[in-house]
């Protein structure tokens, strides 16, 4: 049960990070004015976090039964 709680917390944290990164990338001023490598890094972070979230959700589904 404790492990399931940890997974729930991780899912919430990852969803918050994704929302933050998506908000940043939706900001035209950020995308336009930030150095290109920083914007690319943000996009990479977003994709990586989405992949991690998917794995965490799969783990949750497996253990939450």
Tell me the layout of helices and strands.
Layout: H1 2-26, H2 28-33, H3 36-63
Helix pairs in contact: 1-3
Number of strands: 0
Tell me the structural class. Answer: mainly alpha
User: How confident overall, as mean pLDDT?
Assistant: 97
Shape, please?
Answer: elongated
Number of helices: 3
Characterize the structure shown.
- The chain has 65 residues and is mostly helical.
- It has helices at residues 2-26, 28-33, 36-63.
- 91% of the residues lie in helices and 0% in strands.
- It is elongated.
- The model has no long low-confidence stretch (mean pLDDT 97).
Summary?
The protein is mainly α and 65 residues long. The protein contains three helices and no strands.
List keywords for this structure.
single chain; 65 residues; mainly alpha; 0% strand; elongated
């Amino acid at each position: 049960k404790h492990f399931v709680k940890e997974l729930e917390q991780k899912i919430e944290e990852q969803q918050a990070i994704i929302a933050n990164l998506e908000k940043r990338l939706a900001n035209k001023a950020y995308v336009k004015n930030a150095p290109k490598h920083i914007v690319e890094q943000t996009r990479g972070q977003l994709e990586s976090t989405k992949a991690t979230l998917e794995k965490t959700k799969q783990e949750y589904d497996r253990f939450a039964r």
